[in-house]
């Protein structure tokens, strides 16, 4: 029984490792824009797994790349959640998430490219940055710190500004300093009715260290 169980555990670990390798390969292809043209053979070659392994885990390329995008969103969301307090001012949590997400263009460009290319497709997802922005906006409305009539429009405005700033930071890395993320957060807070003095404080407050990339088998940017 013990030997059978050990063998089963090894097989499960190998299956999980194979799946992880393919998801990581898909993430790299999403980041550099190759996802549309990549063949299954190219994916398995990049993952260094056998071609026949693909259909043991995914029914199609579309499924793999969707899993890869959601993997990125979950990774970012988990990281942002790790530095927040559930009972804190939602405007502070919102500003911090915006600032740290924009900084990914410099600290984690692979993640930033995937978010820029695919973020709008997941605007109403319950995962990733959009979900947390929606949560903080709604909490801010309830607490009276945001003056927003249309939460859906506020989320769209946030997403558009955030993705555009990320894109500009990726295109012009020499200009992608901390001030860019701070200015964006301050402008969004002002747009949502936060007083100017409070918005400046929230947009310039010292940020905690953000650890991203703790999912099993994740490889940091090369």
Automatic annotation (TrEMBL):
InterPro entries: Homeodomain-like_sf, HTH-type_Tx_Regulator, HTH_TetR, Tet_transcr_reg_TetR-rel_C_sf, TetR_C_40. Gene3D superfamilies: Tetracycline Repressor, domain 2 (1.10.357.10). The keyword Acetylation does not apply. It comes from the Bacteria. Keywords: DNA-binding. Residues 39-58 bind DNA. SUPFAM superfamilies: Homeodomain-like, Tetracyclin repressor-like, C-terminal domain. The keyword Transport does not apply. PROSITE patterns: HTH_TETR_2. Residues 16-76 form the HTH tetR-type domain. Signal peptide: none annotated. PANTHER family: ACREF/ENVCD OPERON REPRESSOR-RELATED, ACREF_ENVCD OPERON REPRESSOR-RELATED. This is TetR/AcrR family transcriptional regulator. It comes from Streptacidiphilus alkalitolerans.
């Amino acid at each position: 029984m013990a030997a059978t169980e050990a063998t089963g555990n090894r097989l499960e670990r190998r299956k999980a490792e194979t799946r992880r390798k393919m998801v990581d390969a898909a993430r790299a292809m999403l980041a550099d824009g190759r996802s549309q043209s990549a063949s299954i053979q190219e994916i398995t070659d990049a993952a260094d797994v056998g071609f026949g392994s693909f259909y043991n885990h995914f029914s199609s390329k579309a499924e793999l790349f969707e899993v890869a995008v959601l993997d990125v969103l979950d990774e970012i969301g988990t990281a942002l959640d790790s530095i927040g307090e559930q009972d804190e001012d939602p405007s502070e949590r919102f500003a911090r998430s915006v600032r740290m997400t924009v900084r990914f263009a410099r600290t984690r460009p692979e993640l930033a490219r995937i978010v820029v290319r695919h973020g709008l497709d997941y605007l109403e997802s319950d995962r990733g940055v959009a979900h947390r922005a929606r949560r903080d906006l709604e909490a801010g409305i309830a607490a009276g710190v945001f003056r927003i009539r249309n939460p859906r429009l506020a989320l769209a405005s946030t997403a558009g500004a955030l993705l555009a700033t990320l894109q500009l930071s990726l295109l012009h890395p020499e200009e992608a300093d901390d001030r860019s993320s701070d200015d964006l957060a301050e402008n969004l807070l002002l747009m949502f009715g936060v007083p100017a003095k409070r918005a400046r404080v929230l947009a310039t407050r010292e940020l905690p260290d953000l650890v991203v990339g703790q999912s099993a088998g994740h490889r940091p940017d090369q």
